């Protein structure tokens, strides 16, 4: 997922996606702790996706505040 795709989504969709990514990150951490994690690089990509979603949400919030 890239930032351009995220900018096309509404804030509600972004929040839903953020919740899903955080759940996935939790599950990946749990799998890593129990030794069941096969793709360790997935943790990194999920963490970066969370950061991207948060960045776009903050940009949208700043833009909305600037319009008022």
Automatic annotation (TrEMBL):
Claim: Ribonucleoprotein is one of the keywords in the record: yes
Keyword line: Ribonucleoprotein, Ribosomal protein
Gene3D superfamilies for the chain: 1.10.287.310
Cited InterPro entries: Ribosomal_protein_uL29, Ribosomal_uL29, Ribosomal_uL29_CS, Ribosomal_uL29_sf
CC terms in the record's Gene Ontology section: cytosolic large ribosomal subunit
Pfam families referenced in this protein's UniProt entry, alphabetically: Ribosomal_L29 (PF00831)
Listed GO biological process terms: translation
Molecular function per GO: structural constituent of ribosome
PANTHER family, alphabetized: 60S RIBOSOMAL PROTEIN L35/50S RIBOSOMAL PROTEIN L29, LARGE RIBOSOMAL SUBUNIT PROTEIN UL29C
Family the entry assigns: Belongs to the universal ribosomal protein uL29 family.
HAMAP family listed in its UniProt record: Ribosomal_uL29 (MF_00374)
Protein name per the record: Large ribosomal subunit protein uL29
Organism: Pontivivens nitratireducens
Record lineage: Bacteria, Pseudomonadati, Pseudomonadota, Alphaproteobacteria, Rhodobacterales
